[in-house]
Amino acid sequence: MLKNLLIKNYALIEEISVDFSSGLTIITGETGAGKSILIDALGLLLGERASTDMIRTGAEKAIVEGLFDVASNERVAEILKVNENDPADELIVRRELTAKGQSRCFVNDSPVSVSLLKEIGDALVDLHGQHEHQSLLHPETHIEFLDDFGGYEKEINAYQKSYRILVDMTSKKRELQDQEQQLKAKKSLFEFQIKEIDAVNPQSNEEDHLEAELKILENTEKLNELTNGIHQLLYEAESSVYESLVKARKMVEQLAEIDHTFAESVNDARSAEVIVDELSKQVQSYAARIEFNPDRLEDIRERLGALSMLKKKYGGTIDLLIEFRKKIGDEFKFAENFESEIAKLEEEIEILRKECGTAANGITIQRKESSKKLEKVILASLGELGIPKAQFVSTILQRTVDSSTNMLAVRVGSQLFETTAKGIDHVEFFISTNVGEVPKPLVKVASGGEVSRIMLALKGALAQSDKTPLLIFDEIDTGVSGRIGQAVGLSLKKLAAHHQVVAITHLPQIAGLADTHFAVEKSETNKKTSTQLRLLKTEERVREVAKLMSGTEVTEAGLKSARELMGIK
Q1: pLDDT by residue (tens digit) across 370-393?
Q2: What pLDDT score was predicted for residue 293?
Q3: Could you give the CA distance from residue 139 to residue 361 in angstroms, rounded to a whole number?
Q4: Out of 23-27, 75-79, 153-157, 425-429, which region has the weakest mean confidence (pLDDT)?
Q5: What domains are defined for the chain?
Q6: Those residues with Cβ within 8 angstroms of residue 167's Cβ, 6 or more apart along the chain or in another chain
Q7: Would you say 493 and 515 are in contact if contact means Cβ atoms under 8 Å apart?
Q8: What's the whole-model pTM score?
């Protein structure tokens, strides 16, 4: 929902700030007052092409800014999420255009691209009139209109789950086929590398153990010298440590006999003797095992050299080397079994094609049923809206393919069909608004006023399911008056129960139904023309409707007729 619109220095508008409310908002004004400027400014805000010609004379830049309530708009939240913007309950959308031709777009003060602005705008506003920004003029949206009307969202969601898997599998197959020549070229290299690594057969943590053993073997002489020295010092030398400790312990025992406070010291002295004795035995035992083994020393050096060479070639550590061996082993195995892997993948893809095809065909059947119902509803509405002899047809076509080599396709029976996330159908609306004319694509044959009324008929049919919160209708009353104008107004009023609706009109039958009514007015100040937008109070509304009925000269009879039309006593 649009809560506020700010326009500065755009064409004849110096500055306008307008608060909008829900329901049906009507904008009226004399020809040339600037109603189309409002629509052009909104178009700029929604991502349409910018032109410096629209900057007010003498101004440096033009600004259009809209404040939108998007608290319940899931489409906008998803767009923001995908484009790494933070979701919010309110969205400030701003477009700036400088006199130098620079255009800048912002969403909640964060710079965004024009394409993202347009994508967000499409989820916020549907603008109908003599403008590009109207979804009905894009055939790719017709399938969405039909699906919204049909209400088979569960079936589409179920199909899309299988479709996403099919997309992944098809992409995987394409990637594998792209790798085929590369794999074949590398196969002999992998084979050589595997043999070279397996000849050494490196083991995790092996280097640490080998280097520890190497250090011992390279220092056997030193180890002998140290262990013998320790044993001599502790046990065999004159006045050895052990002998000295024995003497000291005996002296402590004598002290304890005289003074009992040395009783614990006796135990400490004995413990010292035991520790030295055990250390001496440990050193002797170790010395007995020391053996110089030149063959083992050479083996370890060769082994460490081989490991070092492999590390330099294939990985900085043994663990990385082992990981590399596993990787090339898997790739070599895959290259050896490439054909069978592709065949296996193709079998899985074929199963998915049939599964997706069954789901897509079910949706096609529902679309065909829904299209007939939609055609009846649209034709009835168009009759009420002043296009009584119309023909409206929803064409639903499928495209077959001869081969499914690397293409997204699904199988229905014996045939393969192109497919998308929406199924196998291509939907486009065809229309004829004149007797004797064959229905043609809507985008080519309908005038602006007719497109707006067709959209009004569609929106009426889809009122509760359509997710676009704001609908703007410009020139929807082109070529209609009287009873038809009243029907158009009532359709807008019904639509306003489910959407925020803004309509620019010249018809009193439509203006009289407004929940909120603005008048576009033009004035001159200091030899400059400015366009303003003024909210009308009840009596002002009556006078404005009376002007639409009888012209600029408003009489009491005209005011009375306006009140009757508006239902005001």
Answers
A1: 999 999 988 988 888 888 888 999
A2: 86
A3: 21
A4: 75-79
A5: 1-138+469-536 (3.40.50.300), 206-333 (no CATH)
A6: 408
A7: no
A8: 0.62
